[in-house]
Write a structure and sequence with these properties.
The chain is mainly beta. It contains 1 helix and 9 strands; from the N terminus they run E-E-E-E-H-E-E-E-E-E. It holds the Pfam family YceI.
Length: 172
């Protein structure tokens, strides 16, 4: 069995996020700080990714003042508590076919998570894409969640948010 390690090329890799609410959605990006992908006999076998939560950007709010206000709210304890927890970590624990199981840690809270991934290797370059759906309430983000607050009406924010992950990694 041949193990091969790939390091993430962070400037070329990205995560797009989408958070939905009753009246619409917001979207943006968040950066991968560092990470690696492990292949065993050419098949995905493991990996670990450190996400720089302080890099979160909101792309759909174009007014600078509103964008800064929204960013401040995402940085607050209502959501990511960025001052206390500037990183999130995803560690792959098992892979079966194209389905990945792993542990996602946000705000020092870890939960198992599963998602599908597409991996392609061309020479010494690996590309991987996947959609990770995260229940924010498992990580202490209960703000305007219908699970914890009643009568929110059109101010309700859905519990799940999506991470569209696009990784480029180079063999080391």
């Amino acid at each position: 069995m041949k193990n091969q390690k790939f390091e993430i090329v962070t400037p070329q890799s990205n995560i797009g996020w989408v958070g939905k609410k009753v009246t619409g959605a917001h979207n943006g990006t968040i950066a991968i700080k560092e990470g690696e992908v492990i292949l065993n006999d050419g098949k995905l076998a493991g990996g670990k990714f450190i996400i720089d939560t302080t890099s979160i950007k909101i792309l759909d709010v174009t007014d600078p003042d509103l964008n800064a206000q929204f960013w401040g709210h995402l940085a607050s304890d209502d959501f990511f508590s960025l001052e206390k927890y500037p990183e999130a970590v995803l560690e792959i624990t098992s892979v079966e076919g194209n389905h990945v199981e792993g542990n996602l840690t946000i705000k020092d809270i870890t939960h198992a998570i599963g998602f599908d991934v597409a991996v392609n290797v061309n020479g010494d370059v690996l590309t991987a894409t996947g959609l990770v759906v995260v229940d924010r309430t498992k990580y202490g983000m209960k703000f305007r969640s219908g699970n914890f607050f009643q009568n929110l009406g059109d101010t309700l924010i859905y519990n799940d948010f999506e991470l569209n992950v696009n990784i480029i990694a180079k063999a080391v």
